[in-house]
Write the structure tokens for this entry.
Amino acid sequence: MKIIDKARAVRDSLAARRSERKRLRGPAQLQYAIADTLAMLDAGAWNTLTAGAGFYLSRGYLMALEPVLPANLAPRYALIFDGDKQPVAAVYMQIAEIGISQVRPQKLPSARGKAPAPLEKLTARATQRVLTCGNLLSYGQHGVAIASGVDPNLAWHGVAEVLYRVREADKLRGSTHFVLIKDIHEPHTKPASYLTNLSYRYVETQPNMVLTLGDNWKSHDDYLASLASKYRSNIRNSVFKPLDEAGCSVDTLHDVAAHESRIHELYRSVRANADFRPFLLRPQYFPALQRMAGDRFRCSVIRRDNALLGFLISVADGDTAVAYHIGFDREAAVELPIYLRLLHAGIADALALGCRQISYGRTALEPKAALGAKPQKFGVLLRHRQPVLNKLIKRLLLGIEHDEAPERNPFKKTAGGKST
């Protein structure tokens, strides 16, 4: 009897799932306003819905971002309303044309007169059209803001319908190969997972490395004082000392526009070495970000003989400093620990911004763990047109076959055996 009962339970569960999927494939009882530019949507409704969603969904940021978006990204926006025309959710999307060559290490320029290899010619032309719910330029769930008190299942059903409508409407410009909802993390994971009933697949990516700042830290010196002696000595001898001896200094760049070309050159130097390069930021993006972020913005730079060797840009989003744009001179970095020093500059900047944690992003897990950063689980929801392209799509998903963050605890132990 137990076997029969289990079989019935499985049958009923599958039937319920089929019924739910059939319901979700129909229209939600919602209304939509979808636009190519944010100025076309009701400003009051957008501001109301995104008031608690942070900097990256704010109307001011998104409108300032529009004219400086990378050439292969096009924004889309949507407002979702219920039957009584009450705001339910705001949705930010980007349509990206991503070339296959952008998911392979960048090749150095060929010798003069030498024709590109056939594979290089092929990958230069092959592209995937991706509809992303969220912002490819930032880390975090910056695609959906849901009104307080709204049923999250209803809201996410509406989000799925918005994505379907945008994909269908954009067919005149080209077919969308797959839809991506990024970056899913707590407390959004469970509500967003409702879309697995609509054939969206959740895939875990590399974690976001987050450093929690001590309550009593007022400066970088306070951070250093909290470290175990071996870590503190290593930082001073292996990171700070070589740069001091090389005559380098670290300071704040107050006018990014005055150094726009050099900042962009340093950014491209780092980008060229990345396996996944979904876009190329414009030179004018960096000063535009400084203007739009205002006093939320910090840019730390390393100089030698007045020449910029590296930079790190951090933006305060609530109590989180997002340290996410970085660039440095790779030739100088062969002998100098420029990257590590910039990570430490991010700590000083976060404290100056009054933040309580730093989001360092998904790359270079080892050095960030050595700082004391811990992994925050990130994932994406994916729905693609052709399952046979799954292997290719995995390469497009921000490092699907992700590394696990190493366990590091650089902080002193208290009398009770806990870290400070």
Observations:
- The chain has a mean pLDDT of 86.
- The chain has 14 helices and 15 strands.
- The CA atoms of residues 229 and 412 lie 8 Å apart.
